[in-house]
Amino acid sequence: MAPPLALLGAIPGASGVGAGSARGGPSRAQEFEPLEKTEKEWREILSPEAYAVLRKEDTERAFTSPLNDEKRSGTFICAGCFLPLFSSTTKFDSGTGWPSFTSALEGRVGTKRDFKLIWPRTEYHCGRCGGHQGHIFKDGPEPTGQRWCNNGVALVFVKDGEELPELRT
What CA–CA distance (Å, rounded) separates 96 from 68? Predict the structure, then answer.
């Protein structure tokens, strides 16, 4: 079983609903029910690239996602469960090759510490399906000073004026 995720708010300087767990732990009032699927079910609905990132915490190659250059107004949703995660108003060009944001939508992501590169990083996941999205760094622009560095394959963009898809069941 994966380690529990703290809901957004456990990150110093981040706004959110406070500490909690997206997969158990203290209960929190949420606008959504957690989504649980078997690995087989995830493999059936996700592309191999999205499966590797969302379910196995892989990282896509830099500068490979068309979402890195997305400039239209809209909402970025989790490619796994369709939960809205980011507003285009928080997106910026970090020059890193991955879509980057200054903050996530409140209460929509969970965090955990990641030591895969020896030094600790803050990893974040979709608060509904637990799908890996990316990492948070402290080198972003104002107003937060944070860079939410996201794998593009883990997101779907819905432009303003288009209806958001129903949450996946």
Answer: 9
> How many angstroms separate the CA atoms of 43 and 78, rounded?
16
Indicate the domain borders of the chain: 6-24+34-159
DSSP code at position 80:
T
Place of tokens 């649980």: 36
- The model's pTM: 0.82
Q: Which residues are known to be catalytic?
A: 149
Question: In this structure, what token pair is assigned to residue 115?
Answer: 């030591």
**Residue of 55, 32, 34 lying closest to 45 (CA atoms):** 55
CB contact at 8 A, 120 and 114: yes
Read off φ and ψ for residue 43, nearest 5 degrees: -60, -30
As a whole number of Å, the CA-based R_g of the chain is 15
pLDDT digits (tens, 9 = 90+) for 107-121: 999 998 876 666 788
Architecture of domain 6-24+34-159: Beta Complex (2.170)
